Amino acid sequence: MARAECTAEVVEDAPPANEVPEYLEKYRGSIARIGLEPESFARAYSVALRLTPSRWQVW
Fold it and tell me: What is the value of pTM for the model shown?
């Protein structure tokens, strides 16, 4: 297992998830498993974050 300590920043100019083809290709099945369509997922999870790891703990 591992844990990362990170700083987070909101990415103001990120496109919605349903407008990023690579993201949809990777996560379409997971989005469907939680009962959402790409458009409703993008509305529900509308804030993009950029995480920058500062420390790792592995055990």
Answer: 0.77
